[in-house]
Amino acid sequence: MDAASNLSCADPEQLGSRYYLERPLGSGAMGQVFEAFDLSLSRKVAVKTLLPECKEEQWVQRFLQEARAAAQLEHPGIIPIHDLGYSADERPYLAMRLVQGETLGAVIQRLADGDEETHRQFSFSRRLQVIARVAEALQFAHDRGVLHRDVKPDNILLGTRDEVVLADWGLAGFSKPEELGPAADPESRATGLSADGQIVGTLGYVAPEQLTGESAGDAHLDVYSLGATMYQLFTLRTPHSQQGTLSDVVGRILTEEVPPADDFLHAHQGRVPRHIAMIIEKATARDPAQRYGSCLQIAAAIQDYLDGEAPAVCICTGTKSLLWRMLRLLDNHPHAFVVGGLLAVLIPVLELILILMLW
Questions:
Q1: Choosing from 150, 168, 185, 222, which is the catalytic residue?
Q2: Other C-beta atoms within 10 Å of 287: how many?
Q3: Does domain 4-96 have CATH number 3.30.200.20?
Q4: Active site annotation includes 222
Q5: pLDDT tens digits, residue range 111-148?
Q6: What span, in angstroms and rounded, lies between the C-alpha atoms of 67 and 305?
Q7: Which residue, 72, 164, 279, 306, could crosslink 133 as a Cys pair with Cβ 3.0–4.6 Å?
């Protein structure tokens, strides 16, 4: 969702007989979100309404598609839908749980601005935990045949109670839309393009195959977008430059690999550790076959890194690689490079001696 600064609630209104719209929270391509009061249950909620200019049937169906997608996904990392209704002018609206907090996009902006408090709060470890929780929510959706198709920082909400929530399922696609019944939107099949050939998703985060319409309609779309989000969270820049014409940007996405995340040195956070960069690199591979096969694999790779687990073991002794652990130390303490370099040479020799002794 975009910032709410362009919205106005100078004339608060009652929506139907149940909701009182209090203040705007954000706006997207087809809807706007308000903080509202549920008169029936006396509680705060978020209400998303369809924009007045989006009355065409295709927009209505896409809005209802969001309700159908989110209604199937009862997960702590996905905002639950409370109610679906229609306003006096027959525009649909959704009532959902209100998450008090901010978007990941807002956090990234403060990090990019060099805000010291934000850099203290969002260490590399905490950033990894955020991505892992989004990955788990996406995996839950994928297991139920739902793709998000618009994963990006502005659609990830960080609540004041430590919630990490994936929002805005308005572009969701279904791997088996026929199971939704005759009301299913023809655009609900989980491909990369809409029925009229328009790009589904946000340009800075879409997978290359979303731009060409060659997507198989599987988890690789969301894997890439989550990887692109992770890339920006760690490097504070999008995977590909957004400068130039639309054609220029699309051309870069289609023909260029994402620059390694550890290529950049930031004044307030240093360089991205190599093993984190490797996770990002695999998630954002241009070829879908080279990416992680699922978001669960991303979450597992992150957890292994956080736990200090080695990605491989010594094939002779079955012990975790001491060399890998030393590289982890260098990731977190780059000033130890000289000592670490010597140890990186000595440790394989010691491992070889151990193997010979056990032979």
A1: 150
A2: 10
A3: yes
A4: no
A5: 999 999 999 999 999 999 999 999 999 999 999 999 99
A6: 36
A7: 164
